[in-house]
Amino acid sequence: MSLLSVQKLSMGIHDHPVLHDVTFEVAKGEIVAITGESGSGKSMTAFSVMGLTPGGAHATGRIMLKDTDLLTQTEAQMCALRGNAIGMVFQEPMTALNPVKTIGDQVAETILIHGAGTRAEAMQIAADTLTRVGLPQDRFPLGRFPHELSGGQRQRVVIAMAIALRPALLIADEPTTALDVTTQAQILQLLAKLAREDDMGLLMITHDLAVVSEMADRIVVMQHGRIVEQGDTAHLLRNMQHPYTKLLFAASTHQVDLPSLTSDAPLLRVDSVSRDYRTPRKSVFGAPGTFRAVNNVSFDIKKGERLGLVGESGCGKSTLTRAILGLEDVQSGSITLNGAPVFSAGRANLAVRRNMQVVFQDPYGSFNPRHRVSRLITEPFFLLDNPPKGQARTDLIAETLEAVGLSAADADKYPHQFSGGQRQRIAIARALIIRPELIVFDEAVSALDVSVRAQILDLLADLCRQYDLTYLFISHDLSVVRTVTDRVLVMQSGQIVEHGPTEQVFSDPQHPYTQTLLAAAPTLPDLTDKASTHAQPPLV
Hints:
By secondary structure, the protein is an alpha/beta fold. The chain is built from 20 helices and 22 strands.
């Protein structure tokens, strides 16, 4: 008998159908991945199992957890199952954790709610569980707060909360999307290890086919609320039948055709830059300490060049980016654009600053939802001495929107009227509208579906041809960096440990840290070798 059996699950929210005859199973100790783009219904399927559907939702079919039909359970009965028989790991650990409670209290809370022990016993179980997920008490005591941990460590706390009572089924909804490659590999290894050790069913929700190919025993592919294909991982990937599955795989391996470099003239020059931060005093009368976030970094970007910057969280990428954009001064060294300093006389040099723009990871968070697109993309005009007005302004807005694949009519719409990929196009239009000499892309495609990501990367290549675009591309997704950059810098602990032509660094890495990053990155199997029918071994 299967651990979880979803049978002909259909769901609507008010009058809008969301799921259509969804049927699949998860056995004990099995890892099943549901994959598909945003809006495919994969997360709603997981929430249906947890009984966390929104108001107005109505479902038909059956969701059997062993002998229990979850669709027939009352809210009180589901509360008894959540955290006990079913655990869930959410995508963003910082929003899943209570910032004013210690990690020990949050893991123990599940145990106490289900009456599985006294407070002392619950805290001991919490300590044991945190140790089990890689947070030993000698380094991560129960009294730590979430803000004192890194992103990967916070995700381990969320996993500890989910498995504290050894549930039969664990659901992981995009648990590694925001993590760098080495942390992602550690979290995936941990989840696979827990599933094998506890003989626990693991239902993985992800849009990353590379993760799926390395980890899952079986794959379920969803589109528009329907399962279009499912089966054993190795067999399905080598014998894809549905066009949508083939589209996802093609988008995951998409290669961008960048134009050739046309200039050797340096545009941006970073020379021996160091940046320090003050740290708290260790005693009442003691002097504050310092932490060096960027240590003697030097490089340049040629006009028309596409430079990549990779490294784990905390390596100094963001600090270096803020210094390049003139948002922070540095303790030593210099940063110049066309020979002019980006920071002078204790403030940003606006004459230089207007020639640089940035595209952030989450465009929706950087937009004012009350403003129309026409106002949002013209925000950089405040940097200009004589911004265009009247018809010239309208024409420039239309030209820029059309350059990024939108229409002039979109200028009168609001951000919520666009998809995630379209909002990222608007963010690129905002950066492009004043024709800057350098654009910084800060994790600009990490939150996008694979097909949307491929479209945005093709857009960047087209803009390079039209505008001779020069950019610094910062990302933890090494497969993306490999296809959209000419050179790459690898950063560790505030220093550039390796640099060179992108293909050379990726094909023949010299530094141990670069080798570690590349080894940790999940990769899709090479389907050209039809003779092999075995999947890559699961992470253990």
